[in-house]
Recover the amino acids of this structure.
């Protein structure tokens, strides 16, 4: 690893100040499960690492404003075991799919939302957009794990976050502090598709820090489900995923949110597919049809046509899982 | 000297041989005390990091290490490449320079400070596209520039046999290149010391060959072979890739010589995947013909693939695998790619040959509406020259495997794997391997205090070599295991063979048995003289010397007769004396589920029925079979080297994207040895390679049986499964 | 150049004070600064679990932790499991169950199993496969690891019953 400074603030304000130095060439260290990798592979070169683990205001899970406020230091395991999140089934399903206890115990929910793409061109040191000689390496090269939506610009990678689809479907917001103060950003608008290597995968500006994630509480008429297509029954990254939150009335969908993951440079909201579900009940047929609609606009690259089918299956299965109709023994 | 009969003794007469014995180095391994090469950090050790080429084909045009050398803490820079004569780099990951420094981080600073520039040349890394290779002139050519195959072999009249056949199947099959992925990477810790009277160079080397790498170090540095000590007490995986001193071993030695400090140079994870060898690939168009009873009458195949810059592929002379129809035509072509080179990978050639042959045979069986088990049985009278003695054995192993798999109950026709999205199916494949012992010595010493030790310049890859040596010595001396010593892991002991190709267990146990029999024969002479008994009647057991069934004296009393000079005997191997033999078979079956909506394969059950002659240690032997199955599951379903055709780079050289199965991915594994008396009487045959061979084909066949669709190329990742289903 | 820091921590019950640069991982610190090489280096990117240690009672990949982060922490490594050459139940079960072959993954698997059995003394086979899914073994047999964990759980429970 390259040399860097290490700072350990005790408050959010201190953290913001430390992050703002060096023209923002700083990085946040929480669980370390992603950033340590990026540092070792020289994919990012921050001059200072700001270890936020000792900021007490960012710990713990509590009820707030009709929802649940999850501190940025809450680990995946703590989140999965919290009674306050016990009814956010889709979130728990994603946590459970992280089949490595070491990662569940160290990795944080907010860290997941902020992690950088797992594109092999980026991780092998060719910049966020994976360009060489001015050309997209993913476009001309091996793009089997790359985007099938939102991939017409220079960004071909898929968003690295595993929790974002479920959280967006729930209507989550993130609390951000920075040099200009505090703001709450709906998670749906938190992610960005960079057009240059200097841009970021989120809307965070230099010096800004995610301190909390807020999720609305579940009401009795809401069900949720998530499904990740994982090659391995162990530590692995999904090749496509989906999460749904449905408002039900007498078995009929009254409102729906469907968000796909690992299919685009950002989490991908499938609004048309969600709309098609309204007024319907969820069963094998409607779930299949909605899966078809969700992937209808896909623009796969040269090698990742198979991901369209995976995304279709993920949407279908997240819907069936939400209403308890997925045969869990089989999948 | 009292001649002792050189046999293993009757079956059932042993206290140790054939039993389940825990490995004798297990305490060190389980407690973290075992020191591997990567753990060597004696005071003063410098740590090395590598600069590697980032292009598939390039010339180094600039290489300036001044800034690296100027960094505080950097001690030396070693160049593998330079501008001028040695400027060509032939694959992504080829070593360019090494920096040794006080810490690994400082060495990395040094690597980053090296100024390097390349002239990038056109590359070919696609191992599957024969036409592209042809267009790029990457095949083999004769002096006139005419394309020639590596193998073009015809037996009988295959075209006529195909025309006359009741059933003909044509298909495409393949298996991709994989890396060894040793959990402990390649590397060495070298100490250069000319001050004493000891060896000048000590290489603590992660190697499968402590006895043969010493001369490779010596010749590089103009030393006598006796001036190099090679030590490897523990090694974290080799799988065929760790036989040589290697250029990075030389670099570590040179840097130690230059600095006067010990130097540890281990390959980093990415370089470990890219550089020290891979398993060659093969892709084939196959036509196979049969009578309606399933008798194979003809085989035609054209296969190609790569083993890197050399332009080889898997061995065409062994195609088809195991079965030998009367009419065949085999063509093979190698593609010279700008990919890393190949090295022996557990059972070289065999998994690939099996993945092409046994898949085609299962598809032929499907076309005949036969079970593949029945197809195999119909052809056990036409096995190749190597395997032909296995005919009865295969029949028995197929039956036993079928029982363990509940084949009759679960078998269904191709594509009838269920109505839901998840389909279930069965597959089978079989294999052969040699496993004959090779030249190896064992020196047994018995001391006056009762101590007994066997030492061999061998190495324990984790297979349990140390333990079987100790077991044989203890058994022969009639001692409990903990009262004997087995020493290995140094070239200062008598010559031991490199451990590869399933040759080690026969070599070390045969040699140790012979040496121990000779040593105890000398002891018997002393006992006979002292106790006035006939040496021919003596035997050992329960820490005592026996004449017929009467105790003559204790082992300790006997040893007191030895005096200050220990009894020393050296046993050679191989000797045609019945202690060891060659040739094993083996049958594997797979029960898998295929999720046709996501392409994900799950293993339900694997069955392996394996013969290997006389089993010395049932516990470690079984571990070999379990390990083989898991490696087979890996290359069947997940692991592959992914070369980016555009950039020419190995892009998944990390453990995140080079996928390997986890503990939840292996299903239920059932392992059984086939060992009737006829097997016991053959003596010891090696076992390391066989169990990894037919796993891939068996799983591929189960996937085809489940879905009715052949996923032609291994590994059958979700992408390949979904792509195959979409095209079906 | 970033400054070296003095870090004080408890490792296997003993207090250690060491100097480390911010960029040194806990793994590197344990192995090459403190000489505790029982913790193995596998992938160095959190994918193989070979470097698993307990940090304040929780299993973590020590390649994903910086040395400077462990100030004041309690660390347990494989060297702290056995008492001399007297193995604990988990180590003994791995040895007897042939759950180790080349042995590089073994310390990580054992540390992870220690955590599992601390949390869940009587795990099902599925729970074992879930809890150990972050650890990678290239050569032995996950199968024997599962059996050995079951065996260790039984041994530990029997020992505990004996205590009462």
């Amino acid at each position: 690893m390259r040399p860097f400074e290490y700072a350990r603030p005790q408050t959010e304000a201190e953290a913001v100040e430390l992050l703002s130095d060096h023209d923002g060439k700083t990085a946040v260290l929480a669980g370390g499960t992603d950033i340590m990798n990026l540092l070792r592979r020289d994919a990012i070169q921050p001059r200072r690492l700001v270890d936020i683990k000792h900021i007490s205001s960012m710990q713990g899970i509590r009820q707030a404003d009709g929802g649940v406020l999850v501190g940025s230091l809450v680990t995946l395991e703590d989140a999965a075991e919290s009674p306050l999140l016990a009814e956010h089934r889709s979130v728990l399903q994603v946590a459970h799919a992280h089949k490595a206890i070491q990662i569940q115990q160290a990795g944080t929910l907010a860290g997941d939302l902020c992690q950088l793409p797992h594109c092999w061109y980026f991780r092998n040191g060719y910049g966020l957009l994976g360009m060489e000689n001015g050309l997209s390496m993913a476009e001309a090269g091996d793009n089997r794990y790359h985007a099938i939506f939102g991939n017409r610009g220079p960004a071909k990678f898929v968003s690295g976050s595993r929790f974002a689809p479920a959280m967006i479907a729930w209507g989550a917001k993130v609390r951000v502090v920075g040099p200009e103060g505090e703001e709450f950003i709906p998670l749906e608008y938190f992610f960005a598709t960079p057009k240059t290597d200097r841009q970021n995968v989120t809307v965070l500006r230099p010096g800004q820090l995610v301190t909390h994630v807020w999720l609305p509480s579940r009401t009795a008429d809401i069900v949720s489900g998530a499904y990740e297509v994982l090659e391995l029954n162990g530590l692995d990254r999904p090749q496509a995923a989906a999460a749904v939150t449905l408002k039900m009335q007498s078995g009929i969908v009254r409102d729906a949110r469907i968000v796909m993951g690992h299919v685009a440079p950002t989490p991908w909201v499938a609004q048309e597919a969600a709309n098609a579900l309204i007024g319907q009940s969820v069963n094998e047929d409607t779930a299949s049809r909605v899966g078809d609609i969700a992937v209808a606009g896909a623009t796969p690259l040269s090698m990742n046509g198979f991901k369209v089918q995976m995304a279709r299956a993920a949407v279908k299965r997240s819907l069936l899982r939400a209403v308890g109709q997925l045969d869990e023994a089989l999948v | 000297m009292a001649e002792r009969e050189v046999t293993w003794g009757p079956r059932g007469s042993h206290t140790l041989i054939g039993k389940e014995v825990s490995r004798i180095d297990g305490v060190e391994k389980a407690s973290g005390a075992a020191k591997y090469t990567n753990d060597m950090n004696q005071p003063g050790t410098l740590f090395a990091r590598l600069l590697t080429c980032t292009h598939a084909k390039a010339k180094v045009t600039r290489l300036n290490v001044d800034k690296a050398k100027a960094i505080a803490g950097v001690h030396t820079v070693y160049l593998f490449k330079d501008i001028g004569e040695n400027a060509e780099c032939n694959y992504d990951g080829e070593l360019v320079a090494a920096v040794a420094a006080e810490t690994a981080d400082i060495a990395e600073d040094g690597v980053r400070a090296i100024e390097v520039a390349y002239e990038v040349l056109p590359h070919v890394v696609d191992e599957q596209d024969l036409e592209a290779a042809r267009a790029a002139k990457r095949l083999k050519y004769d002096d006139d520039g005419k394309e020639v195959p590596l193998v073009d072999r015809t037996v009988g009249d295959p075209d006529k046999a195909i025309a006359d056949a009741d059933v003909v199947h044509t298909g495409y099959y393949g298996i991709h290149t994989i890396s060894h992925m040793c959990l402990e990477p390649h590397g060495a810790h070298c100490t250069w010391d000319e001050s004493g009277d000891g060896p000048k160079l000590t290489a603590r080397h992660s190697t499968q060959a402590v006895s043969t790498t010493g001369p490779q170090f010596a010749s590089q540095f103009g030393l006598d072979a006796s001036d190099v000590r090679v030590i490897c007490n523990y090694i974290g995986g080799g799988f065929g890739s760790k036989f040589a001193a290697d250029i990075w071993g030389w670099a570590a030695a040179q840097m130690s010589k230059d600095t006067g400090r010990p130097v540890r140079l281990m390959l980093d994870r990415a370089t470990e995947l890219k550089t020290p060898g891979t398993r060659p690939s093969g892709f084939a168009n196959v036509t196979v013909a049969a009578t309606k009873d399933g008798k194979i009458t003809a085989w035609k195949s054209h296969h190609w693939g790569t083993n890197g810059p050399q332009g080889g592929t898997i061995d065409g002379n062994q195609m088809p695998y195991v079965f030998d129809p009367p009419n065949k035509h085999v063509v093979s072509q190698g593609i010279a790619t700008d990919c890393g080179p190949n090295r022996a990978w557990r059972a070289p050639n065999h998994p690939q040959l099996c993945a092409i042959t046994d898949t085609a045979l299962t598809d032929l069986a499907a076309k005949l509406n036969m079970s593949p088990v029945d197809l195999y049985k119909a052809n056990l009278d036409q096995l190749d020259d190597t395997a032909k003695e296995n005919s009865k054995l295969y029949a028995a192993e197929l039956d036993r495997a079928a029982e363990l798999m509940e084949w009759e109950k679960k078998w269904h026709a191709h594509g009838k794997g269920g109505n839901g999205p998840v389909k279930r199916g069965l597959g089978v494949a079989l294999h052969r391997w040699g496993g004959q012992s090779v030249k190896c010595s064992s020196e047994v010493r018995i001391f006056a205090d009762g101590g007994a030790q066997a030492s061999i310049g061998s190495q324990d890859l984790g297979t349990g070599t140390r333990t079987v040596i100790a077991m044989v010595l203890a058994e022969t001396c009639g001692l409990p295991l903990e009262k004997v010593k087995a020493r290995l892991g140094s070239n200062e002991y008598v010559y031991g063979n490199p451990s590869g190709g399933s040759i080690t267990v026969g070599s070390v146990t045969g040699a140790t048995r012979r040496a121990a029999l000779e040593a105890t024969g000398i002891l018997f002479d002393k006992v006979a003289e002292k106790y006035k008994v006939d040496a021919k009647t003596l035997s050992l057991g329960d820490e005592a010397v026996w004449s017929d069934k009467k105790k003559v004296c204790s082992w300790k009393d006997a040893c007191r007769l030895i005096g200050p000079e220990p009894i020393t005997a050296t046993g050679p191997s191989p000797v045609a004396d019945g202690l060891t033999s060659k040739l094993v078979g083996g049958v594997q079956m797979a029960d898998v589920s295929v999720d046709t909506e996501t392409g994900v394969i799950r293993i339900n059950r694997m069955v392996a029925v394996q013969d290997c002659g006389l089993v010395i240690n049932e516990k470690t032997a079984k571990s070999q079979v379990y390990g083989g199955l898991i490696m087979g599951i890996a290359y069947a379903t997940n692991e592959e080297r992914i070369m980016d055709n555009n950039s020419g780079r190995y892009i998944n050289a990390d453990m995140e994207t080079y996928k390997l199965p986890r503990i939840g991915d292996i299903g239920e594994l059932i392992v059984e040895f086939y060992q009737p008396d006829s097997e016991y009487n053959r003596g010891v045959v090696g076992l390391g390679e066989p169990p990894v061979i037919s796993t891939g084909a068996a799983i591929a066949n189960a996937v085809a049986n489940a879905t009715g669709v052949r996923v032609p190329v291994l590994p059958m990742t979700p992408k390949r499964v979904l792509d195959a289903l979409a095209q079906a | 150049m970033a400054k070296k820091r003095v870090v004080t921590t408890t490792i296997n019950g003993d207090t250690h004070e060491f100097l480390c640069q911010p960029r040194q991982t806990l793994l590197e610190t344990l192995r090459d600064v403190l000489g505790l090489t029982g913790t193995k280096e596998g992938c160095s990117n959190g994918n193989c679990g070979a470097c698993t240690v307990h940090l304040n009672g929780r299993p973590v990949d020590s390649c994903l932790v910086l040395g400077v982060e462990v100030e004041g922490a309690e660390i347990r490594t494989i060297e702290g499991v056995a008492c001399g050459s007297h193995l604990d139940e988990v180590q003994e079960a791995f040895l007897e169950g042939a759950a180790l072959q080349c042995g590089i993954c073994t310390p990580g698997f054992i540390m992870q199993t220690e955590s599992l059995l601390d949390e869940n003394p009587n795990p099902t086979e599925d729970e074992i496969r879930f809890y150990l899914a972050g650890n990678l073994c290239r050569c032995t047999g996950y199968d024997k690891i599962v059996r050995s964990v079951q065996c260790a759980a039984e041994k530990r429970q029997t020992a505990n019953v004996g205590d009462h």
